[in-house]
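Before a colleague's protein record goes any further, I have to sign it off. Would you go through it and say whether the fold makes sense for this chain? Take the sequence as given and treat only the tokens as open to question. The record follows directly below this note.
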Amino acid sequence: MTSMATTTDALTSAPVYQTGLLANAPDNLDAKISSEIHAFDHEPSLDEDGLLRPTEEERTTLRRISGSIPWTAYMICLIEFAERASYYGCQFVFSNFVQFPLPKGGNGAGATPKGTQLTPGALGKGLTVSSALGLLFKFLAYTVPVFGGWLADTKLGRFKTICIGVVVFGVAHLVLVLGALPSVLQAGHGMAPFVIGILILALGAGLFKSNVSPMLLDQDTQKGLIVKTLPDGEKVILDPEVTAQRLALAFYGMVNVGAFFGLATTYSEKRVGFWLAYGLPMVLYLLLPVLLWAINKRLVKYPPQGSDLGKFFRVIGTSLRRNGLKKFGRKGYLDAAKPSILAAEGITGEHNGKPVDWDDNFVEDVKRSLEACTIFLFFPIYILNDGGIGNITTSQGSAMVTNDAPNDILNNFNALTVIVTIPILSYGVYPLLRRHKIHFGPIKRITFGFLIAAVSSAIGAITQWRIYETSPCGYYATGCEIGTGVAPLSIWWQLPQWMIGGISECFCNVTALELAYSRAPANMKGLVTSMYLFATALSAAIAQACTPSLVDPYLIWPYVAPAVLGTLMAIWFYFLYRHLDDDEYVRGGVGDTLGEEPRVEPRESIRTGDATQEVRPNEKV
């Protein structure tokens, strides 16, 4: 701060020249004052918390790294693992459970006789019904989060809503296990408990899913860029965007560690039966209440303050009334609702009988939220490319040589690919790009993910074509009973589809979680996150409409159409949103606009460079 004082003294002690006498001023006065002001503007500054903020030059030259991550964030990732393991462990076996009948010569619990190419099954309702029920489950599981996000934002808070979802989840697991008991299946009564179970499971998952990632990102309370000097003397910037990216990658990695648990359930259905395939996820589910109880008192929690949804729509309505519909979506369209603009025109307090109870910053938040929600509208087609329409890829595997492996085993390699890719990106690729000042922004990441997902569908189309060409039943390969009943192609030919799809998720889904949190107003983070999840529900609705076409000999086209649409969509998406890559990361007002400060455990202070940084106990710095 010495140089700042020197600058001030230099400016205040300079001689004052009156108008009309400037001709007598020293020739270098303008240059001197300009250089002093320039130096003043580029001095490092301390914020209200005493943290060192970067200058404009430091923003462009210093390497950016993640801030400290509290242990509670890692515990939330572990909670997500347990929930997703119990969720996907069940979901992965839904297709076979519904589509195929109890195998002949099996044990009556759905398992197949050893040494056969038969597929595990229970209800025998066929591909169309199996896909329809699977899509219904997915639609509900990703529609309920809209309600879950609203409930948390306005009434209960994230933690309580998550706990309610966990209780509902437990009931669903119990119903699924009871409905898969051998005595129930052999009596032909498995359908009713299965449908009831998946409906309850969708409700519990919806209440949980929309709030767990916002609660995770709430644990990082850093609000802006901070300059820090590392032990080796290098000055770096602690960037909340990098921190959020690392948290989102860790979170999504644990999602897929949980999904990999499906490997155990697919082998369970094949070797033992569906009662075990549904029972194992229930055992993992029991970790959830224990983990939630363990971290309850140490979490950063923002209390519900009532959703900003009403103000959100009033801002849009005010802009529509003042600008009309024709210019909607153009740059600066929502500026007409800014109180500063309204006040300049003599409008204060109310506009058209509606209260103007927001500020200019909230209008900027609305802009950012709308941009995020329109970005999410591109995700339904991407999701169709990531795993196929309905259960088509699992069904494709049933027409291939499995050699006693479950036909749905390769689902797990999607998760395994994500598990391997996440640390490579988090600790290898992204730090390398930042070190070389290459900004691989969110729009570039999503575009790249869209493109490689389209490649995955193209590979699926080629695989299906080869099945048709080599199957004993030709272009009617599904459920073939001639000869071996399968094409002489190993199921492992499906591996590229699942692996490429998994890589795409690391770019698309992880980035979407970051955007949903960072671009939402403080009291709408759960709701905006649910809008991203709702994209999966929309994709399920599209797939549901396509279900009648999921029959031989047309199973190539459900791969080709999404691949073509996905490629064209990726190009359009990039040119439409590429400007957002230049935006600075903003946390959407967390802790600034809420009525109360979050409850945070007491902190201890340490010295960071020339400033004091607050650090939570047991954190890594």
Remarks:
- The first strand starts at residue 45 and ends at 46.
- The chain has 24 helices and eleven strands.
